[in-house]
Amino acid sequence: MARWRIEKREKKSLGFVLMILLLSVASGLLVASIIFFLRGVNPWMALTKIFAGSFGSVYGWKETITKSIPLILIGSGLCIVFSAKFWNIGAEGQLLMGAVGATLFGLFLFPKLNPAILIPLMFLAGFIFGAIWGLIPALLKVKLKINETIVTLMLNYIAAEFILFLIYGPWKGKTQFGFPYTDNFAKSLYLKTFPESRVHIITLAIGIVFAIVCWFLLYKTKFGYEIRITGANPEAGKYSGIKTSKILIFGMLISGGLAGLAGAGEILGIHHRLCQPLTISSGYGFTAIIVAWLGNLNPILVVITSIFFGGLLVGGDAIKSSLGFPHATIEIFNGLILFFLLIGTFFIQYRIRLLNKNEKGIKS
Amino acid sequence: MNQKEKFFSLRARNISRCFGNIKANNSIDFSIEAGQIMALLGENGAGKTTFVRILSGLDQPDSGEILLNDQSVYFNSCRTAQKMGVGIIHQHFMLVQSMTVAENIALCDTDSSFIYSENKINDKMKKFEEEYGFFVNPNAKICQLSAGEQQRVEIIKALFRGTNVLILDEPTSVLTPQEADKLFVILQKMKNEGKAIVFISHKLREIMDYTDAVTVLRHGNLVGCRNVNDITQDDLISMMTGEKKVASIRKENVAVGENILKVASITVLDDRESKSIKNMSFEIKKNEIFGIAGIAGNGQRELVEAITGMRNVSSGKIFIYNEEVQNSTPKHVYSKGVAHIPEERIRFGIASGLKLFENTSIRNYEQRPYSKQSIMNYKAIKLKAQTIIEAFHVKTESVDTEIQNLSGGNMQKLIVGREMVDSPKLIVASHPTYGLDIASTKYIQQELLTKSKEGAGVLLISEDIDELMALSDRIAVVFRGELMGVLNREDVTIHKIGLLMAGEELSGENNNG
Amino acid sequence: MTWFVLIFGRFLVAGTPLLLGTIGEIYAEKAGNLNLGVEGMMAVGAISGFAFAHNTGNPWIGFILAGCMGGLLSLVHAFVTISLRANQVVSGLALTMFGVGLSGFIGNEYVGISLVPRFKNVAIPFLSEIPFVGEVLFTRSPVFYIAILLAVVFWYIMFRTKWGIIIRACGENPKTAESAGINVYRVQYTCVLIGGVCAGLAGAYISLYYIPTWIDGMIAGRGWIVIALVILSQWNSLKALFSCYLFGSIYVLQYALQGSFLNPTLLLMMPYLTAVTVLIVDSKKTLKYKTGSPTHLGEPYIK
User: Fold this and answer.
1) What confidence tier does B509 reach under pLDDT thresholds 50, 70, 90?
2) Residue B278 lies in domain
3) Do B223 and B104 sit in the same domain of this protein?
4) What pLDDT score was predicted for residue B436?
5) Taking the model in full, what pTM does it have?
6) ipTM of the complex
7) Which of residues 216-275 of C touch A (CB under 8 A)?
8) Do both B229 and B343 map to the same domain?
C-alpha cells in the first residue's frame, strides 16, 4: 500500500501562485478542447472562433468590454468580502435588486427629474438596494451565526422571483404590448455609449474607479488591513481587538452595493427598462466569483480577468453564430477553469509527501 | 492476532514521531500486560498525547514498532487498532451529541445487524452494566448527559468492541471527585476481567491510589517506568519535572516598586458559561515577574483574556496603574501599555497568509505613524518591522516574506519583539517558550528578564516549572480557577508546586496567598 | 372530475423530479457534503437520458445511463471537495456551470426532436381502479413509483439502519465517526455519489417523461429549488415527499394563477423564503425543535 501524507506547504512564492493560476486556466482550456474533440468539433477551430469573436475585431472588443463592465464592479466588491473569508455567492441577487432600485427611482419616484440629477440618483439607488440585499446575509451571520453561502444563494432566487413579480404584475409596462417588461425609461436617461457599441462609458468609468478604490481600500487603508487580518486568522483579529461584525457588515455593504451598481448600469446602459432577470444578467454574479478568485483577490487584476471572462461570454455568442452551439457552451469553460482553480488552490496550500520505507513502520 | 486469541501484552519499541523539527516522541519504549493499570505521566508537551495516538492507531510513528502478544503489528488507522482490541477514550468524547446513547453505541458496535434495533443494544448494554455495576439510559440524547455519564457511554462502547487495552486520555479532568471514584471502581473491575488500562493523568494521588505502574515522559523522551509500590509522590514529581538543573538563567533579586496590575476578586466565565476563574485576586508590581503555574485548562486562558481585554469579567475589577480596565477592549488595554504574548502563537498571534511586516503592526496599526486617519502607512510599518527583526534577531529573508515561512522560534521572536519593542509597562506572557528550541527559549527568557529589570511587570504563565522558578519573583499555582497558593521565590520547591498543581493543600507550610 | 385528475396528475409530475433530486441531495448533505451542483447534474442527466433513449429506442437505458452520468459528475465534486479539501460551495458552482454548459453543447443536435421512446403511464392492477385516487396516484409513469419507493427506502435506511447512523455520524461529527472505525471519506464519497445519481435520474425524468423533447436550459433552475427543498424538508426524505409535491403543485399553479388575484411569482418565492426561515429557526438550536441540519455540513474533514 502506498503511504503518503498531506502536509501544509510552507513556502509559496508569488511566482508559484501565478503559475498555478495560469496552469489552471490552461488545463481548463485543454479539457474543454478534449470535450470538443470527442464531440467531433475541431478544438483549435472552436477556440479560435471564441477568441476571435471576442478579441479578434474592434466589434468583438467592444462587446467584450461591455460584458466585462458588470464583472469588474462585482469582482472588485467580491475581492473585499472574499478577503474576509465571507462567501458571498449572492452577487446575482444584489445586482438584480440594484436594477430594481434604479428602476424605482427612474421610472416611478422621480421620472420628471433632470437627467443630470436623476441618473446619479438611479445609480445611488442601485447601490443602496444592492447593499441592503447584501446586508441581510451579513446580519444573519453576525447576529445568528447563520452560514452565509446558503442565504446568499437563496436571496438570488428571491430577487429574481421578485423582479418577475414586478414585471408581470404592478410594474408591467403599458406601452409594451403585454410583454413582461416595465415601460422604457425616458430617452434622456439612456447612458451614452461608445460610438457604434453598447459600451456604456459612465458605468465603465465607475467600474474602473471602483476597482482602484477597492484596491486602495483593501491594501492601503486601515479597514482593508482589518479585513485581511480577519480573513487570514479571525483569532488573531480578536486578539488585536478587531470587531469582526463591523468588518463583515461594511464589507457586504460595499460588495452588495457594487453589484447593485452593476445592475443599475446594465439597465441604464443596455436594456433601458426592467426586464427578465435572465436578460439583465447572464450569470455575472457567478462568473464574478471566478473573476475575483483568478485575480488573486486583487481588484486591479480583476479588471484583467474580467476582460478575459467578458471575452469568453462574447465567445459564447461567436460559437453560437458560427458553429451553431448554444450560448451555454461557454459555461463548460467557466466550470472547468473553476475546477482547476480549486485543484490548483490545493497544491498552493498543501503538498503530498510520499513516505519512504523507513517511515512506514513495520507491517504485520 | 485476532480477537479470539487471549490477550496478554502490548508493547511499543523505539517509537519516534516528529512534527516539523520538534521531536514529539523520541524512541519511546512502553509495555503493559493484561490485568494491569498503567498511568502515563508527564507535563504538557511531554509527548503523552502523541504517544497514545500512535498506540491507538490514530497517528503513525516515523519509526519504531508495536507488538501485540509479542507479534509485530501495524496500526494504519484506529480501526485496525480497535479490531486488535486496542481502544482509546479521548479527553473530548467521541460521541455524536445529537444522537441517542443507543445510536452512538450502534455506531461503534461491529456485531450489530444492518437494521438498527434498539432492543438488542439495550439488552447487551444491560449485561455490561450488571457486570460492571453502572447504568446509562439508552434513549437519552448525548447532549443531555453529564460528563461522567458520557464517559460511561464511551466505556460501554469500548466493551462492545471487545477492547482488551483501554487507553484513557485524562479521564478524570472533566469529572467531579465523586464521578472519578465511580470511574475507578469500573476500571478496577475491568482490570480484574483481565483487561489492560492505560491512562494519562496529572493527578499524582490518583496515580498512587489506583494504578499498578507508571510510565513517565519528559520532552518527548522516556524517563522511566516504575512500579507504584516502589516509589513516592516526590519521586514522581522529580521524574516528571526533571532533576533540578542549575538554571543558566536566573532572575536577580530586585527591589520591586509600585503596583502595576491589580486583579481584585474577579470571576470569569468560559465559552460554556461555567466559571473558569473564581474570585481571584493578585497584584503585580514594577520590576516583578509573577509566575502562574498549573496544568493547562485550569482557567489560565480565561485569566489572560480577561486581563488583556478580550473577555469580560462577570464580577470583580482589574486595575492597571489604578485605572479600571475590566470589560474594555484589547485595544484599550494595549494603549495602557500592556503587551500580550498569546499562547499557541500560530492560532492566536499571527495572521498566516499575510506578510511579515503586516504582522508586526497587528497591535498598534491604529496609532501614528502606522496609520493616519484611516490610511495605513506601510512604509513606517516596514521600517518598524525592520527594527524589530534586527533588534530581536528574527531570521528572515526580508520583511516582505510571508509569515508562515518563518520557523516557530523566529515567529515567536517576532511576536515577542512586536510586543516588547515599545517598552510596555506590563507584559502578559502565555507559555512564551512552549515548543521552542533551546536557543530561542533562552533568548526569550532573557528578554523577559531584561524588560522586568527596566521596570516592566510581567505575568508569566507557563507549565514549565524550571522556567517559572528561574524567572519568577513569586509563583502562584492555579487549580480549577483558583489560586492554590502564592509562593515567594525563596520558598519555592518543585515538590510544593507539584502538590499544588495536583490540587493538594500545603498543610502547615509557608503559604502566603 | 377529469379536470381534477388532470391537475393533480400535473402536480405529481412536476413534483417528481424535485423529489428525486431532493432525496439524493439529502444523503450528500447528511454525510456532511454540500453539493450545489444539482442543477448541473440534472442538466447532464436530462441530456444523456434523452440522447441514450433516442439512440437506443429504450427509455430505461436512457434513464439508467443518466443516473450513471450524474454519478460520474458528482464524483468530480467529491474528489475536489473531499480528497482535495476544496471549498464545497465553489466546487458545486463549478459543477453547475460545467453541467449546464455540457448539456447545451451535447444537446445541440437533439434540439426540437420529439422523443419517441418515452416513459408511458403504467396502471397498477386493482389499485388503479379505485375511483379518482386510482387514476391520480396509480396510473403514473414508472419513475413516479420508483421515486416514491426510493424516498421511503432512503428514509428507512437513514433513520432505521446502521448505515443511516454511520452517514449521520459523518455529517455530525466526522472525527467521532473516524474513531468508531468508519472510513469517513468513503461514506462521503458514496453519499455524494448517491446524490449525483439521483440528480441524474431527476434530469432524465424531465426529458424522458415530463417534457419529452430537448430544449436547452430545460432544467430551468430546478436544481436550485432542490437545494432549498432539502432545507425545507429538514433533511428528511419523508418530509421531502410532502414539500416536493407541494412545490410541484405551486409550479403547476403558476400558469393557472397567471393574471388572477394571487400573483404566482410570490408563490414561487416560497421555497427560498422558507428555506431561509428554516435556517433562522435552526440557528436557535433549541432542543425542543431540531431541524436535522448536519453540524459539519460544508466543512472539509481533515483527518
Assistant:
1) very low
2) 259-348+425-501
3) yes
4) 74
5) 0.87
6) 0.92
7) 216-217, 221, 224-225, 227-228, 231, 258, 263, 265-266, 268-269, 272-273, 275
8) no
Q: B172 and B94 share a domain?
A: yes
Taking only the tens place, the pLDDT of each residue in C11-54 is 999 999 999 999 999 999 999 999 999 999 999 999 999 999 99
Q: Which three cell numbers stand for residue C234?
A: 429538514
Residue in chain C lying closest to A28 (CA):
C98
CATH code, domain with B438: 3.40.50.300
Range of the domain at C256: 2-291
Taking CB atoms and an 8 Å cut-off, how many pairs form between chains A and C? 149
CB B141 within 8 A of CB B100: yes
Cell numbers standing for residue B493: 520547591
Q: Which residues of C touch A33 (CB under 8 A)?
A: none
Among C181, C290, C295, select the one facing B78 at the smallest CB separation.
Answer: C181
Helix locations, A145-241, DSSP H? 148-168, 201-220, 222-232, 234-240
Q: In 10 A of CB A304, how many CB atoms? A: 14
Is A139 in contact with A253 (CB distance < 8 Å)? no
- Cβ neighbours of A220 in B, within 8 Å: 375-376, 378
For residue B114, the chain C residue with the least C-alpha distance is C162
Query: Is residue C166 within 8 angstroms of chain B, CB to CB?
Result: yes
Q: Are both B52 and B198 inside the same structural domain?
A: yes
Judge whether residue A361 has pLDDT over 50: no
Do residues B267 and B219 share a domain?
no
Do B313 and B436 lie in a common domain?
A: yes
Measured between beta carbons, the chain A residues lying within 8 angstroms of C263 are 165, 168-169
Give the domain-ending residue among B241, B275, B304. B241
Give the pLDDT confidence of C166-198 residue by residue, as tens digits.
Answer: 999 999 999 899 888 889 999 999 999 999 999
Nearest residue of A to residue C284, measured between CA atoms: A144
Number of domains in chain C: 1
Counting the structural domains of chain B, the total is 2
State the DSSP string of C225-272.
Answer: HHHHHHHHTTT-HHHHHHHHHHHHHHHHHHHHTTTSSS-HHHHHTHHH
